[in-house]
């Protein structure tokens, strides 16, 4: 019964199902909620949590100094993600709430709301049906470490925290030109963001507290507090410089908010590398196999190996090799499935390259149940490919491979006897590239979640891009 | 940080008391085994049945039914003498998630027969359900 004496053979459908439906993350969220609320009756609580299905709803906190553009970004994100915005103002303005009117009185007298009251207001507001279903974006709260910790103890955890930053001088200058539209609450600026319509222009009012002195005061206080708040959110924090055009800040914030964080889910990489000849597929596959222990499955090598072994399938393939014709799909599939079904491939994961070359082959691979969970397209322009391939040479005496530009032979004697593989002649290379590009559009359509990489760089840079593509979760579409 | 340690302790004893980890393990295994199209709805259905089972006192159809228990017993009983040792029995219960590592099971000196094994599995299963207060 021990796993050590007889290793458990887990059928490959199970991990594929787990990954596709994000089972691990779902269970992790369930456990988190159970531990936070510790209900007396766990089963009805779990039923309610599962039926709510709000694991992926936005839960964002935006922090930043005055005049950094927090409210603008928060409002844009709200509209884009269809979520609810929570600021100090709309917390206090809520009707029918005893807590809110208490807070409002306090604010009118002292210009500040005490932390405990604020946190209780937030807690009350976040229990609202709408906030549970569509998520929330907190703008400028928490203001101090005390508030941050109190919110955390109540079990309210954001999934993304964005901190805007800019040099103080820029902020003070910006704040002087700030104008607010009293009807919609949108913020405009005299220089950077002037509204086009004249009716809005007439309505604009100057908010209070934007003189240089007051801004400097607020900045001092902000800097004092933010240093203590940042350690509260270690892994979910991102700092974005707001000293750039609004649109740029917005797009950076949006991409960040839409990425999931790396989870601890068990993950066996099944990587597919697609690209024209000379894009570096074999090299990258070898690097991946070496670093992560994946099994390097090169289609061409598999077929040649089968022929060399003189196995049954090899005998079938040999006539095609001898006549220099393409091997039919059905035979390739037999060899490939045989390899991919082996225990080491199932357990350690695989890197496949050289197959599929067109849509039919992709469908075949899919139907046999070997779906890759990461697909990469390596893009290289034709000139680079020609350069890479036509300058390849082999030394017939030692068998060493050289490249006339990147890895030249050390002595003239060796250079004199170098030979070129007839497959690397320019016309042959061009033919093969054409063939690939004819089919690549269909392949890109088929593999929707594929990641395209510029392979026209040095191999280790490309390797790092591939690594980050494998390790990070696939980017989610907009909720 | 005494306060932190205290809450962690509280959380752990909560998990123990309601046997949450065993329940979650069971749910995840059923999900991966049956691979339903809609995992959430499937989980909700199982939890509803569990809730009803507790309320009405009906025995919940467990993951392991009779034929599985017999098969497990036969795997452990390699020499075919009809009984397994106490250590094997304890390991089996741990694998099924029916007892925790620290629980002390009484060893009455006799080796466990198939009948006793089956009886104990059912007993522990029922205990687990009732234990989920």
Briefly characterize the structure.
The complex is a heterodimer of chains A (479) and B (133). Chain A is α/β, with parallel strands linked by helices and 479 residues long. Helix content of chain A is 52%, strand content 12%.
Average pLDDT reading of chain B = 73
The shape of chain A is elongated
Major β-sheet profile of chain A:
5 strands, parallel
**Largest sheet entry of chain B:** 2 strands, antiparallel
Q: How far apart lie the N and C ends of chain A?
A: 44 Å
Helical fraction of chain A: 40-55%
Report the largest inter-chain contact. Answer: A-B, 24 and 32 residues
Distance between the termini of chain B: 31 Å
State mean pLDDT of chain A (0 to 100 scale). Answer: 84
Percent of residues of chain B in helical segments? 55-70%
Describe what this molecule looks like in 3D.
The complex is a heterodimer of chains A (479) and B (133). Chain A is an alpha/beta fold and 479 residues long. Chain A has 23 helices and 14 strands. In chain A, a hairpin with a 6-residue loop joins strand 12 and strand 13 (401-403). In chain A, helix 7 (115-126) runs parallel beside helix 9 (145-153). Chain A is elongated and about 90 Å long. Chain B is mainly alpha-helical. Chain B has six helices and two strands, in the order H-H-H-H-E-H-E-H.
List the helices and strands and how they pair.
The complex is a heterodimer of chains A (479) and B (133).
Chain A: H1 13-20, H2 23-37, H3 42-52, E1 59-63, H4 70-81, E2 84-86, H5 88-92, H6 98-110, H7 115-126, H8 129-134, E3 136-139, H9 145-153, E4 160-165, H10 168-176, E5 178-180, E6 187-189, H11 198-203, H12 212-229, E7 237-241, H13 246-258, E8 270-274, H14 281-292, E9 295-298, H15 299-309, H16 312-322, H17 329-340, H18 343-348, E10 350-353, H19 359-367, E11 374-379, H20 382-390, E12 392-394, E13 401-403, H21 412-417, H22 426-446, E14 451-454, H23 459-471
Parallel strand pairs in A: 1-3, 1-4, 2-3, 4-7, 8-10, 8-11, 9-10, 11-14
Antiparallel strand pairs in A: 5-6, 12-13
Chain B: H1 2-18, H2 20-34, H3 39-56, H4 66-76, E1 83-84, H5 86-96, E2 112-113, H6 114-131
């Amino acid at each position: 019964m021990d796993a050590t004496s007889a290793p458990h053979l887990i059928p490959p459908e199970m991990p594929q199902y787990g990954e596709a439906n994000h089972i691990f993350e779902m269970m992790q969220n369930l456990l988190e909620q159970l531990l936070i609320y510790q209900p007396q009756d766990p089963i009805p609580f779990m039923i309610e949590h599962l039926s709510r299905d709000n694991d992926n709803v936005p839960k964002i906190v935006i922090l930043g100094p005055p005049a950094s553009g927090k409210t603008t970004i928060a409002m844009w994100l709200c509209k884009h993600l269809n979520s609810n915005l929570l600021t100090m103002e709309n917390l206090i303005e809520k009707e029918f709430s005893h807590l809110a009117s208490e807070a409002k009185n306090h604010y009118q007298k002292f210009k500040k709301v005490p932390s405990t009251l604020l946190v209780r207001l937030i807690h009350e507001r976040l229990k609202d049906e709408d906030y549970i279903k569509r998520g929330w974006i907190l703008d400028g709260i928490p203001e101090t470490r005390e508030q941050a910790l109190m919110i955390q103890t109540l079990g309210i955890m954001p999934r993304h925290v964005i901190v805007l930053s800019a040099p103080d001088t820029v902020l003070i200058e910006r704040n002087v030109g700030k104008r607010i539209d009293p009807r919609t609450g949108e913020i405009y600026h005299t220089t950077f963001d002037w509204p086009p319509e004249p009716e809005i222009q007439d309505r604009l009012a100057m908010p209070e507290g934007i003189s240089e002195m007051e801004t400097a005061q607020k900045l001092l206080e902000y800097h004092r507090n933010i240093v203590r708040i940042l350690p509260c959110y270690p892994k979910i924090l991102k700092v974005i410089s707001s000293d750039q055009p609004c649109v740029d800040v917005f797009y950076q914030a949006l991409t960040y908010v839409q990425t999931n964080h790396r989870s601890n889910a068990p993950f066996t990489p099944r990587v597919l590398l697609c690209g024209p000849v000379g894009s570096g597929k074999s090299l990258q596959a070898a690097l991946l196999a070496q670093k992560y222990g994946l099994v390097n499955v090169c289609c061409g090598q598999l077929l040649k190996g089968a022929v060399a072994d003189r196995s049954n399938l090899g005998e079938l393939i040999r006539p095609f090799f001898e006549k220099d014709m393409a091997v039919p799909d059905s035979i390739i599939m037999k060899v490939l499935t045989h390899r991919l079904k082996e225990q080491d491939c199932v357990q350690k994961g695989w890197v496949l390259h050289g197959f599929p070359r067109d849509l039919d082959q992709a469908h075949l691979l899919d139907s046999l149940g070997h779906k890759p969970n990461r697909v990469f397209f390596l893009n290289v322009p034709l000139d680079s490919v020609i350069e890479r391939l036509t300058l390849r040479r082999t030394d017939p005496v030692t068998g060493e491979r050289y490249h006339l530009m990147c890895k030249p032979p050390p002595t003239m004697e060796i250079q004199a006897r170098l030979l070129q593989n007839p497959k690397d002649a320019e016309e042959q290379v061009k033919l093969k590239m054409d063939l690939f590009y004819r089919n690549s559009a269909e392949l890109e359509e088929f593999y929707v979640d594929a990641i395209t990489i510029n392979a026209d760089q040095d191999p280790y840079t490309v390797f790092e891009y591939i690594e980050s593509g494998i390790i990070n979760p696939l980017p989610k579409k907009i909720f | 940080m005494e306060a932190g340690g205290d809450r962690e302790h509280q959380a752990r004893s909560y998990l123990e008391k309601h046997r949450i980890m065993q329940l979650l393990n069971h749910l995840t295994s059923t999900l991966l085994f049956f691979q339903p199209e809609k995992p959430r709805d499937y989980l909700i259905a199982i939890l509803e049945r569990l809730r009803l089972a507790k309320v009405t006192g009906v025995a919940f159809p467990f993951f392991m039914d009779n034929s599985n228990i017999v098969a497990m017993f036969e795997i452990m009983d390699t020499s075919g003498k009809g009984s397994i040792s106490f250590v094997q029995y304890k390991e089996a219960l741990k694998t099924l998630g029916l007892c925790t590592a620290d629980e002390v099971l009484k060893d009455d000196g006799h080796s466990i027969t198939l009948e006793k094994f089956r009886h104990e599995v059912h007993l522990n299963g029922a205990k687990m359900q009732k234990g989920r207060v």
